[in-house]
Write a structure and sequence with these properties.
Number of strands: 19
Helix content: 25-40%
Structural class: alpha+beta
Mean pLDDT: 92
Largest sheet: 9 strands, mixed
Number of helices: 15
Distance between the termini: 38 Å
Strand order of the largest sheet: 1-5-6-12-11-10-7-9-8
Strand content: 15-25%
Length: about 450
């Protein structure tokens, strides 16, 4: 027997768990398509040089090389390939390569696996599924799209069998404008510090800001700003007390308040301001988003993203965009661990056709084929044996019906009801036709 090799960070679900994952994916897909997003799929590999442009650490990229290729030669190969660690980099390339055939603004969704060489832990994997939406413009992209992606994600996540979610939003222009008014030049450093607030706490952030050369007054004022949260009215009142004089700050605040007001109309109670949300990556230029599940805040953000004024550029034209990404595997792992929902059975089979002897298997196969032709999943018993054993076998696998071909009867082994049946007309009860997601 081959020894089992365990690889942490590469989830493999059991059949019933996979059905739950499929349910989550199809629910998300349905909401994306209801809002007019078109599906694309991109290749799993990209040139390493392209992957590094996003600013992620090279330690997280899995490299691809031929088994016989010299490692040193591979490391210095300008055409070195790596597995993509998110879907934004390949999407940017896709937009540039197909810009002549796309109609802008282009609304796309993408559900694929990505790979990231980080330390596995609760909800964090090395191989996982992401579900992204982005809206991309040619040269310009209207602000209302920043509202739209928040609304779509609120509805997609709200359709799942999970506790209520909160989408926390901020605007990079607010943070940048405030930093400039305080005389802080290292704006990216300030953003990176604020992005760690939940992980290291206020004291840790103050220490890191001091290391960057921020004064105590500057650092404390940034923390005071980061404490502002809530509705449009609450944010407007709190920011007015900051006494900021900055056109950029005012522009960002105006956009944030508009998003909060419009989202409250369309998806009430879900989108809230949180000026501590910074998103440490430097390419965001407008709204930034992070999403938490009520009661499961320790899972971290399950959906995040933001506005970027330059998703891609060919040197002549720039393609701005706004997008959000769901960490599907992270979310599914918690759904399964907490048994928020389960599958009624782990197999698609609705009917097992009993086999009294191997001589009757051909007749049993014919019955199964007739059921399949009518859209009813069926299989014949793997082994001829006493009916009791065949019923127990079906029950162990969660199959709800057993068909007895010689007597033309079918038994619902869940309810115990048995009846005569015509293979050309019989229909299972709707709740047993396919596996159900229950919770």
């Amino acid at each position: 027997m081959a020894k089992k090799v365990s690889l942490s960070g590469f989830p493999e679900w059991l059949p019933g768990q996979r059905l739950v994952e499929r349910f989550v994916l199809e629910t998300i897909r349905t909401q994306f398509e209801l809002h007019g997003f078109a599906e694309i799929e991109t290749r799993a590999i990209e040139p390493v040089g392209e992957l590094l442009k996003k600013g992620e650490t090279s330690k997280e990229i899995y490299l691809l090389r031929r088994l016989q290729q010299d490692p040193v030669e591979a490391a210095n190969d300008p055409k070195q390939l790596g597995l993509h660690f998110d879907l934004t980099v390949p999407f940017a390339r896709y937009v540039l390569e197909n810009r002549g055939q796309l109609v802008f603004p282009f609304k796309r969704y993408q559900i694929q696996k990505v790979w990231r060489g980080e330390r596995p832990q609760d909800g964090r994997f090395r191989e996982f599924i992401q579900a992204d939406i982005d809206i991309v413009g040619d040269g310009e992209l209207a602000f209302h799209n920043e509202v739209e992606v928040a609304v779509v994600m609120a509805r997609a996540l709200g359709a799942l069998p999970i506790p209520p979610i909160t989408i926390r939003v901020n605007n990079r222009k607010i943070v940048q404008g405030y930093c400039e008014s305080l005389g802080i030049e290292d704006i990216e450093g300030a953003l990176r510090c604020l992005d760690k607030l939940e992980k290291i706490g206020p004291e840790g952030v103050l220490e890191q800001m001091a290391e960057l050369g921020f004064s105590k007054n500057q650092s404390q004022k940034l923390l005071d700003m980061a404490e502002i949260k809530g509705s449009a009215a609450q944010v407007q009142a709190a920011t007015s007390r900051l006494g900021v004089v900055s056109d950029l700050f005012t522009q960002g605040l105006t956009e944030l308040l508009a998003l909060l007001e419009q989202a409250e109309i369309r998806v009430p109670g879900i989108v809230k301001a949180d000026l501590s949300v910074a998103r440490g990556l430097d390419y965001y230029t407008g709204m930034v988003y992070e999403t938490t599940v009520s009661g499961h805040e320790n899972l971290g953000s399950i959906c995040s993203g933001g506005r970027y004024d330059s998703l891609a550029s060919d040197g002549k034209r720039t393609y701005p965009g706004v997008g959000l990404s769901i960490g599907v595997s992270r979310l599914v792992s918690r759904i399964l661990a907490e048994q928020m929902v389960t599958a009624s059975r782990g197999v698609p089979t609705c009917v097992m056709v009993a086999v009294t002897s191997e001589e009757t298997r051909t007749a049993a196969d014919a019955i199964a084929d007739k059921l399949r032709a009518r859209g009813i999943s069926a299989e014949t018993a793997p082994k001829a044996s006493k009916f009791g054993k065949q019923i127990r076998s079906a029950d162990q696998r969660g199959i709800p019906y057993v068909w007895f071909s010689e007597s033309s009867e079918v038994k619902n082994i869940i309810t115990g009801h048995q009846e005569s049946a015509n293979v050309d007309t019989w229909q299972p009860e709707p709740q047993y036709l396919r596996p159900q997601i229950e919770g």
